[in-house]
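Whiteboard transcription, Tuesday session. T.W. wrote the C-alpha cells on the left side:
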C-alpha cells in the first residue's frame, strides 16, 4: 500500500484496484467526481480534517474524535491551541 501512495496512483472505488490514470477509474459513487490521488485521499485529507476539527470545534468534540483514534488527552492538552494539540495527535 505504501508504494501506491506516491506518484500517479488512483484507487478505483468500484473495483477497489489501483490505476495509473484517473480516467481509468469509475467516478466516485457519492460525488460523481473522478477519484483523487491516493496520497491526497489517504494522507492529506484526513490530516486537514483533524486540523480543522482542532481549530474550530469544542473540547468535547475534539476529545471524542481523538478517542476514536485511540489517542487519550488530558484537560490541559484539550485546552491548548491547535499547533500543540496537533503535535499530541
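and on the right, the sequence the group agreed on:
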Amino acid at each position: 500500500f505504501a508504494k501506491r501512495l506516491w506518484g500517479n496512483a488512483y484507487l478505483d472505488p468500484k473495483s477497489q484496484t489501483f490505476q495509473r490514470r484517473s480516467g481509468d477509474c469509475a467516478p466516485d459513487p457519492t460525488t460523481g467526481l473522478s477519484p483523487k490521488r491516493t496520497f491526497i485521499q489517504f494522507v492529506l485529507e484526513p490530516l486537514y480534517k483533524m486540523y480543522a476539527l482542532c481549530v474550530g470545534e469544542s473540547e468535547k468534540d475534539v476529545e471524542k474524535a481523538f478517542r476514536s483514534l485511540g489517542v487519550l488527552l488530558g484537560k490541559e492538552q484539550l485546552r491548548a491551541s491547535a499547533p500543540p494539540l496537533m503535535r499530541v495527535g
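Someone added at the bottom: The chain has a mean pLDDT of 82.
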